[in-house]
Design a protein that fits this description.
Residues 1-33 form the signal peptide. The protein is built from five helices and two strands. It has two domains: 11-78, no CATH class; 89-129, no CATH class. With 143 residues, the protein is mainly alpha-helical. Mean pLDDT is 75; it is low at 30-36. The chain has a two-stranded antiparallel sheet with strand order 1-2. The protein is elongated. 52% of the residues lie in helices and 7% in strands.
Length: 143
């Protein structure tokens, strides 16, 4: 029944395929170990994100949510996903660089928690406010 050459593999070829598969699995495991991420971590995170997509708590439409969860899983497998859920401080403060020089220090202060914060992502945005008092320029003398 399995005498056809395309259906039946000889033992040597079967060993070669098995060895190749084992080498691929070992390299994937090594890649996860190198960046501190395990396949279980990435898989469990994907499962949580997928659950949020299906139960509607993700604040995105289902198709977009599932697409992004899958993309994050792929990036984690490649070791290119930033650790943690929050962007790095350098990334967040880099956004302040787009502001004029006189406003940058206040921007960084707001990001680091100075001032008041209100709102949420669910409400449409996070509003950070910092009131800075600056003295008025001296009045010109009129004599």
């Amino acid at each position: 029944m399995f005498d056809h050459p395309r259906v039946c593999m000889n033992p040597h070829r079967l060993r070669m395929v098995a060895t190749g598969a084992m080498a691929a699995m070992l390299s994937i495991t090594t890649a996860f170990a190198a960046d501190g991420t395990t396949a279980g971590d990435a898989g469990s995170r994907y499962s949580r994100e997928r659950a949020a997509c299906t139960d509607g708590t993700s604040q995105q439409d289902r198709a977009t949510c599932l697409k992004e969860a899958g993309a994050a899983l792929d990036e984690a497998r490649r070791g290119r996903l930033e650790a943690g859920n929050l962007p790095s401080n350098a990334n967040v403060t880099a956004r302040c660089n787009a502001l004029p020089a006189k406003d940058r220090s206040d921007c960084v202060a707001r990001i680091n928690g100075a001032g008041t914060t209100s709102g949420s992502v669910r409400e449409g945005g996070i509003y950070r406010e910092l009131v800075t008092t600056t003295p008025a320029p001296p009045a010109a003398s009129q004599e």
